[in-house]
Write a structure and sequence with these properties.
The structure holds two protein chains of two kinds. By secondary structure, chain A is mainly α. In chain A, 71% of the residues lie in helices and 0% in strands. Helix content of chain B is 69%, strand content 2%. In chain B, strands 1-2 form a two-stranded antiparallel sheet. Classes of the chains: A mainly alpha, B mainly alpha. Chains A and B meet through helix 2, helix 4, helix 6 and helix 8 of A and helix 2, helix 4 and helix 8 of B.
Chain lengths: 191, 196
């Protein structure tokens, strides 16, 4: 039980996927201008992250490892993620139109989100069991959503701030992220 | 003239990191030392050149409707090769770049060049386009690395350049990456506005 707790706390706060591992920076900067958009993106990423975490683990354990073809990992994982995203999109469109409408435009972007592939690879590197893979993926997804929500809250307020012309847009977003990252650094002594 | 233009646009005018703000993840994560930056730049350029050649050569064969999956498979194949080569020949660099070598596969610059250039142009211009973009990305990475390594560790390529032994460690921790890239982008915006 304690093991799981450590995985959860370290994935959400200490090794936050965006602010200390630098995965998924593109959506973090691109879709964090509005609170509603970042909620949608966070939801879509969480959904795919957990599914692909479990699926890639199964493929690695029962297909790549027994036949000793671990060098195909990158190729296999990216294909799994790309087809999973397509599949999720089709299923949602058919069975849950409201959810599809909410997540729709964010889904295709996820294929090239390095957080998804990154977490899948970390799962394998740490030699987790399936249970831990699910907890680990879910916690990273929560960490991603948390960072995105915090960022969009700040950026909505930044709209009214008086920022020097050259720093507007991405530069000020990066400096804001630096301050957030510093705050998260404070968690590093937690465990 | 045309080829030189394809080459030079990636270095400054359309620099992938500073002008188009693509490929941020590796630019923030592995830029803690100049050595990492150069290694990452070389690996990235290798994959970009190889995938641009392959995609440009196959552009008549790949059906339009499945081009994105086809590109991803081609890129993933070259990334796997690079990964294996670096594992064998530069083990120290392989360890310090870690997860970011396989992640070259989802680097938006590579897929972006495939879609924007290699699938419309013959092989030779595609090579020059890839070399220019690769060089531009490497230079940008090295610039970010230089600031972070000099300020954060007091060294440049491992040589002591700042006196004293209490550098600003924050610069090689995660926040330093965000600050450096943010300030550099702001500075470049300002320089560009002045010259325009």
């Amino acid at each position: 039980m304690q093991e799981y707790f450590i995985i959860i706390v370290s994935a959400i706060l200490i090794n936050n996927i965006v602010l200390s591992q630098f995965l998924g920076i593109c959506p973090f900067l691109g879709v964090s201008k509005k609170l509603s958009a970042s909620l949608g993106m966070g939801g879509a990423v969480s959904f795919v992250l957990v599914l692909s975490g479990a699926l890639t683990w199964l493929v690695q354990t029962y297909l790549l490892a027994p036949y000793d073809i671990g060098y195909l990992q990158t190729l296999a994982f990216i294909l799994i993620i790309a087809s999973l995203v397509q599949f999720v999109e089709m299923v949602l469109r058919k069975y849950s139109p409201p959810l599809y409408k909410a997540l729709g435009i964010y889904l295709p972007l996820i294929t090239t989100n390095c957080a998804v592939l990154g977490v899948a690879i970390i799962n394998i590197q740490k030699e987790y069991t399936l249970g831990k893979v699910l907890v680990h993926s879910l916690s990273h997804a929560a960490g991603f959503t948390l960072a995105l929500l915090l960022m969009s809250g700040i950026r909505e307020r930044l709209e009214d701030a008086d920022i020097p012309e050259s720093m507007q847009g991405t530069p000020i977003a990066l400096v804001t992220a630096a301050l957030m990252s510093m705050a998260f650094l404070g968690f590093s002594g937690l465990i | 003239m045309g080829l030189i233009n394809e080459f030079s646009k990636g270095v400054i005018r359309e620099n992938p990191l500073f002008r188009l703000v693509l490929g941020c993840c590796p630019a923030l994560a592995i830029t803690t030392s100049v050595e990492n930056g150069l290694g990452m730049g070389a690996a990235f350029t290798g994959v970009l050149v190889a995938s641009n050649i392959a995609i440009s050569a196959l552009r008549a064969v790949i059906p339009d409707s499945v081009r994105i999956p086809a590109y991803i498979v081609i890129i993933a194949a070259f990334v796997t090769m690079t990964d294996q080569l670096m594992h064998a020949f530069t083990p120290a660099l392989y360890t310090s770049l870690g997860i970011f070598i396989p992640l070259i596969v989802v680097n938006c610059i590579i897929l972006g060049r495939a879609e924007a250039f290699a699938n419309k142009n013959p092989v030779i211009p595609s090579i020059f386009d890839a070399l220019g973009m690769g060089l531009g990305f490497t230079l940008a990475l090295t610039l970010v690395c230089t600031f972070r390594e000099v300020l954060g560790a007091g060294t440049f390529l491992g040589m002591q350049v700042l006196p004293g032994n209490s550098p600003a460690i924050l610069m090689i921790l995660p926040p330093g990456g965000f600050i450096t890239l943010g300030c550099l982008l702001g500075l470049l915006n300002r320089l560009q506005r002045k010259s325009a």
